[in-house]
Amino acid sequence: MKYTNYIENETENLLLKFFYQNMKDSEKLSQLCSIYVMKHQLNNYISGVPEINNMTVLSNFKKNMKSSFHNYWHKQISTNLSIHGKEGGNKLRTYNKFKYCINYESYLNLNDYEKRRKIAQMRISAHKLKIETDRFNGKNQYKAPEYRICDRCNLNKIEDEFHFIIECPMYKQLRDNLFTTISGVNYHFINYNSMNQFIWIMTNEDHRILNKFGDFVIGAWEIRQKCLRLETAAQNKLNVILIQFAKCIESHYSKFDFWSLLRLSEFPYYKICW
Q1: What CA–CA distance (Å, rounded) separates 165 from 195?
Q2: Which of the 8 DSSP states describes residue 206?
Q3: Measured between alpha carbons, how far is 50 from 226 in angstroms, rounded to an integer?
Q4: Helix 255-264 to helix 207-250 angle, to the nearest 10 degrees?
Q5: 148-175, pLDDT tens digit by residue?
Q6: Contact 72, 37 (CB under 8 A)
Q7: What is 184-208 written as a DSSP string?
Q8: 225: domain range?
Q9: Using an 8 Å Cβ cutoff, are 198 and 164 in contact?
């Protein structure tokens, strides 16, 4: 706040003043949290305040800044719209199911960096599950969340954080180990419905559970990535075999007759590029 007052009233740095004024006037920047809050609070407190160092003014300013930020934060995580106005497209759709207030999270105290990183990715949707990677189809058309289906199982469910942690049968063994550890701490956990189990895990502060949850996320993610690598390798090998087969056939037919043969036989790979 003092530095803002310095820029507005005291500094002779014209370049600094120019950028500051443009920042305040920019409609695009005003949509960002920090700028949005600062712009409105400055209008209320700096204008007409003769002594910016007055402790009462500073105290009130800080309280209002904190209150405004909290209101803005709650509004952003509770909306159903994406930043582009898409219904159901809020990236924080899972986060708002278990995060109710601004506070320091216990998992950040885990000694294992990789566990902290993986848990954070699950919490804030900074991962490569279908809910994030399938936002658009091959034609760059938006796909609603309900169509971003998990291809690791046959449950026909959205591959989001909830499905990954609670439902997908691919990670059942790891999940059973996690649930066994949790049941040793919370005897009623097994009787919770699926959503309450998910919320309990994401809000838990017991370091034993957090470490075990970190093991689950890391292990499950390794399984998923290994399957993807095997599928990619198999597809690449198949492509090589098909190309070799096609070249072998082509050596016995003219190019016209070859493509005609493929189409007539309804061969699915007639679009191979040469």
Answers
A1: 11
A2: -
A3: 65
A4: 130
A5: 999 999 999 999 999 999 999 999 999 9
A6: yes
A7: TT-TTGGGS-HHHHHHHHHH---HH
A8: 96-250
A9: no
User: Which amino acid, 264?
Assistant: L
Same domain, 64 and 158: no
Say if CB 175 and CB 216 are below 8 A apart.
yes
- For 200, the token pair is 């309990």
pTM of the full structure = 0.70
Give dist(CA 59, CA 269) in Å, integer. Answer: 71
Domain total in the chain: 2
Residue type at position 55? M
In a domain, 129, yes or no: yes
If asked whether residues 106 and 212 sit together in one domain, one would say yes
Using an 8 Å Cβ cutoff, are 29 and 23 in contact? yes
Instruction: State which of 51, 78, 105 marks the end of a domain.
Output: 78
Structural domain includes residue 105: yes
| DSSP annotation of 81 | B
Per-residue pLDDT tens for 24-73? 666 555 455 455 455 555 555 555 555 555 667 667 777 877 888 888 88
